[in-house]
Amino acid sequence: MSTRVAVVGATGRMGRLISRLVEEGDDFELVARLGSGSPLEEMLAADVVVDVTLPHISPGIVDFAVEHGRNVLVGTSGWSADRISPLVGRVQRRGDVGVVIIPNFALGSVLATRFATQAARFYDSIEIVETHGTGKVDSPSGTAVRTAELIGEVRASLGPVIAPHADQRARGQQVASVPIHSLRMHGVSARQEVVIGGTGETVRIVHDASSDAAYERGILLALRATVGATGVTVGLDALLDLDGAPATAS
User: Which of 138, 145, 147 is nearest to 54 (CA)?
Assistant: First the structure.
Protein backbone atom coordinates (compact mmCIF):
# COMPACT_ATOMS: atom_id res chain seq x y z
CA MET A 1 0.00 0.00 0.00
CA SER A 2 1.42 3.39 -1.02
CA THR A 3 1.87 6.35 1.32
CA ARG A 4 -0.29 9.36 0.50
CA VAL A 5 1.71 12.58 0.29
CA ALA A 6 0.75 16.27 0.27
CA VAL A 7 3.32 18.83 -0.88
CA VAL A 8 2.92 22.33 0.53
CA GLY A 9 4.79 24.82 -1.62
CA ALA A 10 4.26 22.62 -4.66
CA THR A 11 4.64 25.46 -7.16
CA GLY A 12 8.18 26.32 -6.09
CA ARG A 13 11.39 24.80 -7.42
CA MET A 14 11.79 22.23 -4.65
CA GLY A 15 8.05 21.63 -4.53
CA ARG A 16 7.99 20.71 -8.20
CA LEU A 17 10.99 18.43 -7.78
CA ILE A 18 9.51 16.62 -4.78
CA SER A 19 6.13 16.29 -6.46
CA ARG A 20 7.78 14.65 -9.46
CA LEU A 21 9.73 12.22 -7.29
CA VAL A 22 6.59 11.30 -5.36
CA GLU A 23 4.68 10.67 -8.57
CA GLU A 24 7.48 8.52 -9.96
CA GLY A 25 7.87 6.44 -6.78
CA ASP A 26 6.05 3.14 -6.47
CA ASP A 27 5.63 3.54 -2.71
CA PHE A 28 4.06 7.03 -2.78
CA GLU A 29 0.89 8.65 -4.07
CA LEU A 30 0.66 12.42 -4.52
CA VAL A 31 -2.81 13.38 -3.28
CA ALA A 32 -2.48 17.15 -2.77
CA ARG A 33 -0.43 20.04 -4.14
CA LEU A 34 -0.85 23.15 -2.01
CA GLY A 35 0.08 26.62 -3.20
CA SER A 36 -0.04 30.00 -1.47
CA GLY A 37 -3.82 30.24 -1.80
CA SER A 38 -4.69 26.68 -0.85
CA PRO A 39 -6.56 25.97 2.40
CA LEU A 40 -4.40 23.95 4.79
CA GLU A 41 -7.21 21.42 5.17
CA GLU A 42 -6.25 20.03 1.78
CA MET A 43 -3.19 18.40 3.35
CA LEU A 44 -5.41 16.23 5.55
CA ALA A 45 -5.99 13.88 2.60
CA ALA A 46 -2.39 12.72 3.06
CA ASP A 47 -0.52 10.50 5.48
CA VAL A 48 2.68 12.58 5.18
CA VAL A 49 3.02 16.32 4.58
CA VAL A 50 6.07 17.85 2.87
CA ASP A 51 6.69 21.52 3.68
CA VAL A 52 8.88 23.44 1.22
CA THR A 53 7.51 26.94 1.63
CA LEU A 54 9.03 30.08 3.20
CA PRO A 55 10.62 30.54 6.63
CA HIS A 56 7.82 32.76 7.99
CA ILE A 57 5.08 30.42 6.73
CA SER A 58 6.61 27.06 7.61
CA PRO A 59 5.93 27.03 11.40
CA GLY A 60 2.19 27.44 10.90
CA ILE A 61 2.10 24.62 8.36
CA VAL A 62 4.06 22.29 10.62
CA ASP A 63 1.89 23.13 13.63
CA PHE A 64 -1.30 22.50 11.63
CA ALA A 65 -0.04 19.14 10.39
CA VAL A 66 1.12 18.03 13.85
CA GLU A 67 -2.17 19.08 15.48
CA HIS A 68 -4.00 16.89 12.97
CA GLY A 69 -1.74 13.88 13.46
CA ARG A 70 0.22 14.08 10.22
CA ASN A 71 3.94 13.38 9.97
CA VAL A 72 5.88 16.20 8.34
CA LEU A 73 9.03 16.42 6.25
CA VAL A 74 10.37 19.98 6.44
CA GLY A 75 12.67 21.19 3.68
CA THR A 76 12.16 24.89 4.39
CA SER A 77 15.06 27.02 5.67
CA GLY A 78 14.90 28.97 8.91
CA TRP A 79 14.58 26.09 11.37
CA SER A 80 17.35 27.05 13.76
CA ALA A 81 17.81 25.46 17.18
CA ASP A 82 15.74 28.26 18.77
CA ARG A 83 12.78 27.44 16.53
CA ILE A 84 13.14 23.67 16.83
CA SER A 85 13.25 23.60 20.64
CA PRO A 86 9.57 24.50 21.27
CA LEU A 87 8.49 22.23 18.41
CA VAL A 88 10.08 19.27 20.20
CA GLY A 89 7.83 19.87 23.20
CA ARG A 90 4.69 20.09 21.08
CA VAL A 91 5.52 16.89 19.20
CA GLN A 92 6.33 15.05 22.43
CA ARG A 93 3.03 16.09 23.99
CA ARG A 94 1.21 14.81 20.92
CA GLY A 95 3.15 11.54 21.11
CA ASP A 96 1.99 9.94 17.86
CA VAL A 97 3.61 12.10 15.17
CA GLY A 98 7.03 12.73 13.74
CA VAL A 99 8.71 15.76 12.16
CA VAL A 100 11.85 15.37 10.06
CA ILE A 101 13.72 18.64 9.38
CA ILE A 102 16.29 18.58 6.58
CA PRO A 103 18.31 21.77 6.02
CA ASN A 104 19.90 20.29 2.89
CA PHE A 105 18.91 17.16 0.96
CA ALA A 106 22.28 16.77 -0.82
CA LEU A 107 24.40 13.91 0.50
CA GLY A 108 27.58 15.83 -0.32
CA SER A 109 26.44 18.73 1.84
CA VAL A 110 25.91 16.43 4.79
CA LEU A 111 29.38 14.95 4.34
CA ALA A 112 30.98 18.39 4.02
CA THR A 113 29.32 19.49 7.26
CA ARG A 114 30.54 16.32 8.98
CA PHE A 115 34.12 16.99 7.81
CA ALA A 116 33.89 20.57 9.07
CA THR A 117 32.66 19.53 12.51
CA GLN A 118 35.45 16.98 12.78
CA ALA A 119 38.05 19.62 11.95
CA ALA A 120 36.50 22.16 14.32
CA ARG A 121 37.96 20.37 17.33
CA PHE A 122 41.50 21.10 16.11
CA TYR A 123 41.27 24.72 14.92
CA ASP A 124 40.03 27.94 16.49
CA SER A 125 39.50 30.11 13.38
CA ILE A 126 36.40 29.01 11.44
CA GLU A 127 34.11 31.00 9.14
CA ILE A 128 31.42 30.04 6.62
CA VAL A 129 30.72 31.57 3.21
CA GLU A 130 27.48 30.43 1.57
CA THR A 131 26.30 31.44 -1.88
CA HIS A 132 22.89 30.99 -3.47
CA GLY A 133 20.94 32.48 -6.34
CA THR A 134 19.12 35.78 -6.04
CA GLY A 135 15.79 34.01 -5.56
CA LYS A 136 16.69 32.68 -2.11
CA VAL A 137 14.87 34.94 0.30
CA ASP A 138 16.50 33.98 3.60
CA SER A 139 20.04 34.38 4.85
CA PRO A 140 22.05 32.83 6.25
CA SER A 141 20.98 29.56 4.69
CA GLY A 142 19.58 26.76 6.82
CA THR A 143 22.58 24.63 5.88
CA ALA A 144 25.02 27.28 7.11
CA VAL A 145 23.10 27.71 10.35
CA ARG A 146 23.05 23.94 10.91
CA THR A 147 26.79 23.69 10.17
CA ALA A 148 27.60 26.48 12.61
CA GLU A 149 25.38 24.97 15.32
CA LEU A 150 27.09 21.59 14.97
CA ILE A 151 30.51 23.24 15.10
CA GLY A 152 29.38 24.97 18.29
CA GLU A 153 28.32 21.64 19.77
CA VAL A 154 31.64 19.88 19.13
CA ARG A 155 33.49 22.90 20.53
CA ALA A 156 31.36 23.12 23.69
CA SER A 157 34.29 22.24 25.93
CA LEU A 158 36.78 24.29 23.89
CA GLY A 159 34.99 27.61 23.79
CA PRO A 160 33.92 29.88 20.92
CA VAL A 161 35.85 30.20 17.69
CA ILE A 162 38.15 33.16 17.21
CA ALA A 163 36.16 35.85 15.40
CA PRO A 164 37.89 39.23 15.80
CA HIS A 165 35.97 42.46 15.16
CA ALA A 166 32.66 40.59 15.10
CA ASP A 167 30.87 43.82 16.00
CA GLN A 168 31.47 45.13 12.47
CA ARG A 169 28.59 44.35 10.07
CA ALA A 170 30.93 43.26 7.29
CA ARG A 171 32.18 40.44 9.51
CA GLY A 172 28.98 38.49 8.94
CA GLN A 173 26.30 37.11 11.24
CA GLN A 174 27.50 34.97 14.10
CA VAL A 175 25.78 31.65 14.79
CA ALA A 176 27.22 29.64 17.69
CA SER A 177 30.17 32.10 17.51
CA VAL A 178 30.90 31.18 13.85
CA PRO A 179 30.73 34.12 11.38
CA ILE A 180 28.54 33.36 8.35
CA HIS A 181 28.77 35.41 5.16
CA SER A 182 25.88 35.14 2.67
CA LEU A 183 26.16 35.91 -1.04
CA ARG A 184 23.09 36.10 -3.30
CA MET A 185 24.14 36.14 -6.95
CA HIS A 186 23.12 35.27 -10.47
CA GLY A 187 24.76 32.22 -12.00
CA VAL A 188 24.93 30.17 -8.80
CA SER A 189 22.81 27.25 -7.63
CA ALA A 190 24.11 26.49 -4.12
CA ARG A 191 27.59 26.59 -2.63
CA GLN A 192 28.97 26.47 0.90
CA GLU A 193 32.58 26.90 1.90
CA VAL A 194 33.83 26.38 5.44
CA VAL A 195 37.19 28.11 5.86
CA ILE A 196 39.31 26.83 8.74
CA GLY A 197 42.53 28.58 9.74
CA GLY A 198 45.47 27.36 11.76
CA THR A 199 49.09 28.34 12.25
CA GLY A 200 50.64 28.42 8.80
CA GLU A 201 47.73 26.67 7.05
CA THR A 202 44.11 26.84 5.99
CA VAL A 203 41.61 24.10 5.24
CA ARG A 204 38.69 24.76 2.90
CA ILE A 205 35.71 22.39 2.78
CA VAL A 206 33.49 23.21 -0.19
CA HIS A 207 30.23 21.75 -1.41
CA ASP A 208 28.70 22.80 -4.73
CA ALA A 209 25.26 21.73 -5.94
CA SER A 210 25.20 22.36 -9.67
CA SER A 211 21.72 20.96 -10.33
CA ASP A 212 18.61 19.78 -8.50
CA ALA A 213 19.65 16.19 -9.21
CA ALA A 214 21.95 16.53 -6.18
CA TYR A 215 18.92 16.53 -3.89
CA GLU A 216 16.96 13.59 -5.27
CA ARG A 217 18.60 10.80 -3.30
CA GLY A 218 18.28 12.68 -0.02
CA ILE A 219 14.66 13.63 -0.67
CA LEU A 220 13.64 10.01 -1.17
CA LEU A 221 15.63 8.86 1.86
CA ALA A 222 14.07 11.56 4.07
CA LEU A 223 10.56 10.99 2.76
CA ARG A 224 10.70 7.26 3.47
CA ALA A 225 12.09 7.94 6.95
CA THR A 226 9.28 10.41 7.66
CA VAL A 227 6.59 7.78 7.07
CA GLY A 228 7.35 5.96 10.32
CA ALA A 229 9.04 8.76 12.25
CA THR A 230 8.18 9.78 15.80
CA GLY A 231 9.53 12.80 17.62
CA VAL A 232 11.71 15.42 15.93
CA THR A 233 14.65 14.44 13.73
CA VAL A 234 17.05 17.08 12.42
CA GLY A 235 19.44 16.67 9.51
CA LEU A 236 20.00 14.10 6.81
CA ASP A 237 23.01 12.92 8.81
CA ALA A 238 20.61 11.51 11.42
CA LEU A 239 19.25 9.17 8.73
CA LEU A 240 22.65 7.97 7.50
CA ASP A 241 25.20 5.66 9.05
CA LEU A 242 28.12 8.01 8.51
CA ASP A 243 30.40 6.02 10.80
CA GLY A 244 29.62 2.57 9.40
CA ALA A 245 28.15 0.97 6.33
CA PRO A 246 27.57 3.13 3.22
CA ALA A 247 24.03 4.26 2.48
CA THR A 248 22.26 2.13 -0.09
CA ALA A 249 21.29 3.67 -3.40
CA SER A 250 17.65 4.62 -3.88
Answer: 138
Apex 125 CA angle, 165 and 160, nearest 5: 75
Residue 250 located in a structural domain: no
The answer to whether 214 and 108 are in contact (CB under 8 A) is: yes
Torsion of CA 237, 197, 159, 145, to 10 degrees: -40
Task: For helices 81-94 and 58-67, give the axis angle rounded to 10 degrees.
Answer: 10
What totals of helices (H) and strands (E) does the chain contain, helices first?
Answer: 6, 11
Q: State the pairing for strand pair 190-198/201-209.
A: antiparallel
- Residue 136 among the catalytic residues: yes
Candidate list 136, 181, 186, 207, residue with the active-site label: 136
Once rounded to an integer, what is the mean pLDDT over residues 3-23?
97
Is 245 inside any structural domain? Answer: no
Question: Would residue 244 count as lying in a domain?
Answer: no
**Number of domains the chain is built from:** 2
- Domain enclosing residue 194, as ranges: 107-209
186 belongs to the catalytic site: no
Indicate the pTM of the whole model.
0.89
pLDDT band at 247 (very low <50, low <70, confident <90, very high): very low
Taking residues 181-200, what's their average pLDDT?
96
DSSP, residue by residue, 50-68 = EE-S-TTTHHHHHHHHHHT
**pLDDT digit string, tens, across residues 78-129:** 999 999 999 999 999 998 999 999 999 999 999 999 999 999 999 999 999 9
Which of 132, 165, 181, 186 is catalytic? The answer is 132
Mean pLDDT of 42-53: 98
